């Protein structure tokens, strides 16, 4: 049995990870963590029987303890609880599927415990890649990407020599507003932005996809995962979401990973790497598909993507500002407190205000996040 721990078990990636566990008889969940959705977490605990579970608040932890008092399980809370789940002794691999920079410290804890990391928390590398990747090399911890695009790049790199890598072609669906101009986005409502054409995702990441900020975060993440400059990453809009990403080698050869839009494929690939397992589900039928189309991204209308390239090039603490500003702006939009087009405006204003720290520590990264939140609170 391969034992795994999961951070963010009640979210989109977490629940699909548990579907993969359910469909395979040789995976066992030893530890699990979620935010405050203890109703779903209780169901997961009763089905998968972890020995350790964490929730964010002690109040919810107390309630969960009462609900599962008939089971042999220990319930913990807060950041200390997340760290305990991340370093749980029996788990071989940690799936980190929580959203936000809250994932940094648990990822570090798992690396120091010499776990493999199935990484779906892009903010960890966006803001702290300069810390995480060297630490993973030091402790011999394998970082396995779970995002469909980064998994596709990782898979494509198995077919060639890493030193011969010339360029990464990071694909994007274009989101629900592909082809629109700024004037057409003035009156976009929350409901409009939550209608992604191809993927079922959480609310925050769906908004990020619509603004193409999510693709910008993936550009910076790719920089750290694959040891390239951001200028070696080219974003290509591929509306059908059939090609999940590609790599181009020095000789001009391009290797791509194709498949139906199903997040369980990259999740399962990470959990069993380097083995491939049968995965139930729809297969590509090229006779029905007939064509795959490509476009260049519109970085004027969706200039959050352009800001991401700027943050990635300049580095230091600026990617933290980009990420934190976006998180807060998206939250304000979802709460209907700002307009849709104010999301990139807020990101740009925060980046212009910030004085870059060249090689920030974890403490400086977290302080930068809070300073960015404070700046937005005082201005918007």
Automatic annotation (TrEMBL):
Cofactor: Mg(2+); Mn(2+)
InterPro entries the UniProt entry points to: DXP_reductoisomerase, DXP_reductoisomerase_C, DXP_reductoisomerase_N, DXPR_C, DXPR_C_sf, NAD(P)-bd_dom_sf
UniProt protein name: 1-deoxy-D-xylulose 5-phosphate reductoisomerase
Biological process annotations from GO: isopentenyl diphosphate biosynthetic process, methylerythritol 4-phosphate pathway involved in terpenoid biosynthetic process
Key words of the record: Isomerase, Isoprene biosynthesis, Magnesium, Manganese, Metal-binding, NADP, Oxidoreductase
Organism: Faecalicatena contorta
Function: Catalyzes the NADPH-dependent rearrangement and reduction of 1-deoxy-D-xylulose-5-phosphate (DXP) to 2-C-methyl-D-erythritol 4-phosphate (MEP).
Pathway: Isoprenoid biosynthesis; isopentenyl diphosphate biosynthesis via DXP pathway; isopentenyl diphosphate from 1-deoxy-D-xylulose 5-phosphate: step 1/6
Name of the gene this protein is made from: dxr
The keyword Manganese appears for this protein: yes
Binding site for Mn(2+): 147, 149, 218
Positions with a binding annotation for NADPH: 10-13, 35, 37, 121, 123, 202
Family from the record: Belongs to the DXR family.
Domain of life of the native organism: Bacteria
Source organism phylogeny: Bacteria, Bacillati, Bacillota, Clostridia, Lachnospirales
EC code: 1.1.1.267
Pfam families: DXP_redisom_C, DXP_reductoisom, DXPR_C
Keyword hit for Isomerase: yes
Residue ranges of every copy of the 1-deoxy-D-xylulose 5-phosphate reductoisomerase N-terminal domain listed in the record: 4-129
SUPFAM superfamilies reported for this sequence: 1-deoxy-D-xylulose-5-phosphate reductoisomerase, C-terminal domain, Glyceraldehyde-3-phosphate dehydrogenase-like, C-terminal domain, NAD(P)-binding Rossmann-fold domains
GO molecular function: 1-deoxy-D-xylulose-5-phosphate reductoisomerase activity; isomerase activity; manganese ion binding; NADPH binding
PANTHER family linked to this entry: 1-DEOXY-D-XYLULOSE 5-PHOSPHATE REDUCTOISOMERASE, 1-DEOXY-D-XYLULOSE 5-PHOSPHATE REDUCTOISOMERASE, CHLOROPLASTIC
Residue ranges of every copy of the 1-deoxy-D-xylulose 5-phosphate reductoisomerase C-terminal domain listed in the record: 143-226
Residue ranges constituting the DXP reductoisomerase C-terminal domain according to the UniProt record: 258-372
Reactions accelerated catalytically: 2-C-methyl-D-erythritol 4-phosphate + NADP(+) = 1-deoxy-D-xylulose 5-phosphate + NADPH + H(+)
UniProt-annotated binding residues for 1-deoxy-D-xylulose 5-phosphate: 122, 148-149, 173, 196, 209, 214-215, 218
């Amino acid at each position: 049995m391969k034992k795994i721990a999961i951070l963010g078990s009640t979210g989109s990636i977490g629940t699909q990870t548990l579907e993969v566990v359910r469909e395979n008889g040789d995976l066992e969940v030893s530890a699990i963590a979620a935010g405050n959705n203890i109703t779903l977490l209780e169901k997961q605990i009763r089905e998968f029987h972890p020995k350790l579970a964490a929730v964010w608040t002690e109040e919810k932890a107390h309630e969960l303890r009462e609900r599962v008092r008939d089971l042999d399980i220990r319930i913990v809370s807060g950041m200390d609880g997340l760290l305990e789940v991340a370093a749980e002794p029996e788990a071989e691999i940690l799936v980190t599927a929580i959203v936000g920079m809250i994932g940094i410290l648990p990822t570090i804890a798992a690396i120091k415990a010499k776990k493999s990391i199935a990484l779906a928390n892009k903010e960890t590398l966006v803001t702290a890649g300069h810390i995480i990747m060297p630490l993973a090399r030091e402790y011999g911890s394998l970082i396995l990407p779970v995002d469909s695009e980064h998994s596709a790049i990782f898979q494509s790199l198995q077919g060639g020599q890493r030193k011969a890598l010339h360029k990464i072609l990071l694909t994007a669906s274009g989101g629900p507003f592909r082809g629109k101009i700024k004037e057409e986005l003035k009156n976009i409502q929350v409901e409009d932005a939550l209608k992604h054409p191809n993927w079922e995702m959480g609310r925050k990441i769906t908004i990020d996809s619509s603004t193409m900020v999510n693709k910008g975060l993936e550009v910076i993440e790719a920089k750290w995962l694959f040891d390239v400059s951001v200028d070696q990453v080219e974003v290509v809009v591929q509306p059908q979401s059939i090609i999940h990403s590609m790599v181009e080698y020095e000789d001009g050869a391009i290797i791509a990973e194709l498949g139906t839009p199903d997040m369980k494929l990259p999740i399962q690939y990470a959990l069993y790497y380097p083995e491939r397992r049968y995965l139930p589900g729809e297969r590509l039928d090229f006779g029905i598909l007939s064509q795959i189309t490509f476009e260049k991204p519109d970085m004027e209308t969706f200039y959050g993507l352009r800001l991401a390239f700027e943050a990635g090039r300049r580095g230091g603490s600026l990617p933290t500002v980009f990420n934190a500003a976006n998180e807060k702006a998206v939250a304000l939009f979802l709460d209907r407190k700002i307009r849709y087009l104010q999301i990139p405006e807020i990101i740009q204003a925060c980046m212009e205000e910030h004085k870059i720290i060249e090689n920030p520590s974890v403490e400086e990264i977290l302080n930068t996040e809070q300073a960015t939140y404070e700046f937005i609170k005082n201005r918007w």
